[in-house]
Design a protein that fits this description.
The protein is mostly helical and 192 residues long. The chain is built from eight helices and three strands, in the order E-E-H-E-H-H-H-H-H-H-H. Strand 1 and strand 2 form a beta hairpin. The protein is elongated, with a radius of gyration of 19 Å.
Length: 192
């Protein structure tokens, strides 16, 4: 995504690499030798087998996590994005990522997600993570922000039924807008 300064490459091996600069020149052997010797930085974030059918767990260093949070919505391919979302959610649930940063990533990237599956899974898990790992003084505000993301997803024309159900559940469990909730009880949440 040129606007964000990230360049994303998917190698024939199925690995996805995200880096902030264009690829270096030289033969493959020369580049591998330079990487092994620590003379060449190949990527800010590498997702091995990100296009394969297996699920792997990825440990991100601080630089990789920063990159992931910045480019999450621009990563091509549903599988690499799902892998990054799962990693970010796991880090937040283990306390290695502040829950507020998870919610900020959610606000920035989830409404534009093109997958039919990812928003449903990420939204549901995010509500759990906020209640599980968020500081009690901030849980209400963070949950409200997730509720606003849920409303944005509900406004999508033609949203899949599973997403409508999850987004409605997230909105009901996180929002404190009694007028909206009362309206939904009377009229339903509307078309998604």
């Amino acid at each position: 995504d040129a606007a964000r300064g990230a360049v994303v490459y998917t190698a024939p091996s199925g690995a996805t690499a995200i880096q902030g600069v264009a690829p270096a020149t030289g033969t493959v052997d020369e580049r591998v030798e330079e990487v092994v010797a620590g003379k060449r930085h190949i990527a800010d974030l590498v997702l091995p087998n990100s296009t394969g059918d297996t699920f792997i767990r990825v440990e991100l260093d601080p630089a990789g996590l920063t990159t992931a949070l910045a480019v999450l919505g621009a990563v091509p391919g549903e599988h690499p994005r799902a892998l990054l979302w799962a990693t970010v959610l796991e880090l937040a649930s283990r306390g290695r990522l502040p829950v507020a940063e998870l919610v900020t990533a959610l606000e920035a990237h989830l409404p534009g997600e093109t997958s039919e599956i990812i928003p449903d899974l990420v939204l549901a898990r995010s509500v759990q993570v906020v209640h599980q790992a968020g500081l009690s003084a901030h849980v209400g505000d963070l949950a409200e922000r997730i509720g606003q993301v849920a409303l944005r997803l509900l406004r999508r024309p033609g949203a899949p039924e599973a997403l409508v159900e999850t987004a409605t559940g997230a909105a009901v469990s996180t929002l404190h807008d009694t007028d909206l909730l009362r309206f939904w009880l009377e009229e339903g949440p509307g078309d998604g």
